Amino acid sequence: MLATERESLIREKIITNGIVYVADLVKEMNVTSPTIRNDLDKLVKKYDDLDRIHGGVIYKSKEENSLSEVITGYSERSFENISLKKTIAKRALLLIENGDTLLIDSSSTCFELASLLAESNKKVTIITNGLSTGTVLKQNPKLTVLVIGGLLHPSSNTIYDEFNSPIYTMFNIDKYFFSASGLSIKSGFSEFNIMEVKNKKANVDKSRISIALVDSTKFDKDSTSTFCTLAEVDYLVTDDQLENNLANEYRKEINLLIG
């Protein structure tokens, strides 16, 4: 198939489905991931009604409150400190073993971890409250993916379990991956959103191993409410931009891993 023919087919799929993913197109068209990514980049530059997102492309709806705008809004926010988050995700991936049951939160840093899992050969079960996270994970048939049901706010990627879903009681959580708006040695891990505080505190308590993924820009910064102390978390994974003096201080309090 010629490149122009492939691009035309991809555009048709985008318009029909509203969204396409690199992993799906690679399988359907029997070409490499770099080839598909190059095709998508060309299409986004050529057509104003397409937007690039993590792992794919979406078709812009003309409706003001369209799904496209919701996904794009989250995508734009997730690009903040993206290189740091990718570095953290690569280091965190090394902590995952075949057969693990994972709980992954809806943060953009954990989304980067999910993106790596979607392209990996690992065979794990994953529970998440992240809408985008679940969507990217489902592309890998080796992964068993469960998305927690609940309340979804406009322009939000997080599903809030307000119905006390029994899904947690059905699984033994080996590892819980989460992020935080801020952390400090004195106050621990904290969030602005009180609903997230409640959920993350419970998840840390119920998981065998808890692993925080926090980029260096959030160190020594406290948010509204603390959901756990450093002592309650098994590993803290961050990027190599963390200052040495800060790294040494935190190593005294927690197992610090630097990507």
TrEMBL record:
InterPro entries to which the protein is assigned, alphabetical: Carb_Metab_HTH_regulators, DeoR-like_C, DeoR_HTH, Tscrpt_reg_HTH_DeoR_CS
Alphabetical UniProt keywords: DNA-binding, Transcription, Transcription regulation
Molecular function, one GO term: DNA binding
Keyword match Transcription: yes
Residues annotated as domain HTH deoR-type: 3-59
SMART domains: DeoRC, HTH_DEOR
One Pfam match: DeoRC
Name of this protein: DeoR/GlpR family DNA-binding transcription regulator
Organism of this sequence: Enterococcus alishanensis
